[in-house]
Amino acid sequence: MTGFAAEIGPPILLTLELAAVTTLLLLLMGTPLAWWLARSRAPWKEAVAAVVALPLVLPPTVLGFYLLVLLGPDGPGGWIAGLWGARTLAFTFGGLVIGSVLYSMPFVVQPIRNAFEAFGERPLEAAATLRASPLDAFFSVALPLARPGLLTGAVLGFAHTVGEFGVVLMIGGNLPGSTKVLSVAIFDYVETMQWGRAHAVAAGMAAFSFAVILLMTLLERRSRAARA
Amino acid sequence: MNAAREPIRCALAGRLGRFALDAAFEAPASGVTAIFGPSGCGKTTVLRCIAGLQRIDRGRISVAGAVWQDDRAFVPPHRRPVGYVFQETSLFPHLSVKGNLLFGEVRARKGGAAMALGLDEVAGLLGLGPLLDRTPAALSGGERQRVAIGRALLSQPSLLLMDEPLSALDRRTKDEILPFLERLHAGLALPILYVTHDMAEVERLADHLVLMEAGLVTASGPLAALQGDPSLPLAARRDAAVSLEAVTGDYDPHYGLLALDVPGGRFTVPSAPTPAGERRRLTVQAADVSLALRRPEGSTISNVLPACIREASPLNEQELVVVVSLGAAGEGARVLARVTRRSWDQLALAPGKEVFAQVKGVALAPRRR
């Protein structure tokens, strides 16, 4: 069993690292985007929203394929990688992060946008008449009121990144220590007929997902009770 | 002229969606100015434009000498020293009552505003002391509205805007809050624009009135003058009334009757013991006033005042609304009387005629402070 632990340790750490970095980036980018989607009156904002939501329905392989083209040596990703002397962003941790961010984007943006829309115009108008500038009101009123949505978005984004497979396989490959994450590890074990190990990882991930969903439901119920 | 004494000037014209607004009025720099009109006449829009929450194409707004909007300038809402009390509760649910109250206060302080009102004073004025550590969710509707008023006051406004602050509340809660509003009115120099469609609130609170209908200002002026103008729709209402500023006089402890002096006359009303020299507001309904040629005898009506007919205008097929001014020479306050056309003809009443006004009932506003 120690062999298994040594074998599965790096993919677990890598998975958690990828999910954490992805969630952080998604919160930083997704919150302003959700704010814009919730408040803008631009007629084309729903087109932007549709693009953000695409990963919900697109086969991961389609997204992975385009990412492979974009991140590869002949795409803009290759050009960027050239800045530090690399040949490509594909099959790197950075490439995985880019893929995960795009793939999990709707799971983070949608709950935050809903939260921003739920409290409406009134609290922000009240803040404005109380001398809060728009930026001040965003941080002192909008973000605290959207907290349940931010929490849901963060948990969903994290969990969804942990569970992604198709995109990772297309652009990450299976390089131990840099792109071999848990979902790929299971695939590996099945390919090589190590059913026992596949079982252990699969059961672990099922338990993790269950815990996440349960935690989220409980958090949501608590925040609703606090407000009622 | 002292800038702070300059009236509030407001001229707004333009379209907002399908709604056309053309409203211009001035309001004095102190006291309560009620903006009164039916639902959907644009009262709230006027208030929102003054706060800067809505922008109308052609608007000129100046308050205490500062221009908030004209052809070139539009001061954003957070740079306008207004307090705004919304119709429904608008407290921040993530902050305690105290956090809500101080939200505007700390920002006003940082902005270098003159801190005229402190937390203790406002909490005392509105009875908020016991609520400070609660969350808005744990407050009743009336308490929330009081906190909202306190929060607006603590942002150190030079103008307080109130958008039907009582209309979302039930009768009992309204009666609980009105005395607080009367205290604000009596205790603060701050001008208040008060939007309402409830005449009873106007009669109790307002000094000045702006009448609106279908996006237009139809009249504006001192409350009693507008109430007593038979050319305006107010005098034709079933509940037409005139509000008078009275000063308390002698109190008769044996019968529990209080004398109240108004220009040109003295009323006697049942009341709890009250010291002399207090300012109180009386409301006299047109339906409670009848006219007689001689001082009637053997009547239970105790308020019979010499008066002089000023003018009359038909109310409907059967009735007229008559403006009389109190005092034998007709030099005093004006009240309305509703009389039938038959009585008017039988008594040969006419403008200039000296009569006796019998006042069956007088509403005395509760004591302020």
TrEMBL record, chain A:
Annotated TM spans: 12-35, 47-69, 89-109, 198-219
Alphabetized UniProt keyword annotations: Cell inner membrane, Cell membrane, Membrane, Molybdenum, Transmembrane, Transmembrane helix, Transport
One GO CC annotation: plasma membrane
Keyword Transport applies: yes
Membrane topology: Multi-pass membrane protein
Highest rank taxon of the organism: Bacteria
NCBIfam families found in the cross-reference section: modB_ABC (TIGR02141)
Protein name: Molybdenum transport system permease
Species, as recorded: Alsobacter soli
UniProtKB/TrEMBL annotation, chain B:
One Pfam family linked to the record: ABC_tran
Keywords: ATP-binding, Cell inner membrane, Cell membrane, Membrane, Molybdenum, Nucleotide-binding, Translocase, Transport
One GO MF term attached to the UniProt entry: ATP binding
Gene Ontology cellular component list: membrane
Taxonomy, superkingdom: Bacteria
Domain Mop span(s) in chain numbering: 298-368
Domain ABC transporter stretches: 3-239
InterPro entries named in the record: AAA+_ATPase, ABC_transporter-like_ATP-bd, ABC_transporter-like_CS, Mo/tungstate-bd_C_term_dom, ModC_ABC_ATP-bd, Molybdenum_import_ModC, Mop_domain, P-loop_NTPase
Family, similarity comment: Belongs to the ABC transporter superfamily.
The protein, known as: Molybdenum ABC transporter ATP-binding protein
Gene label: modC
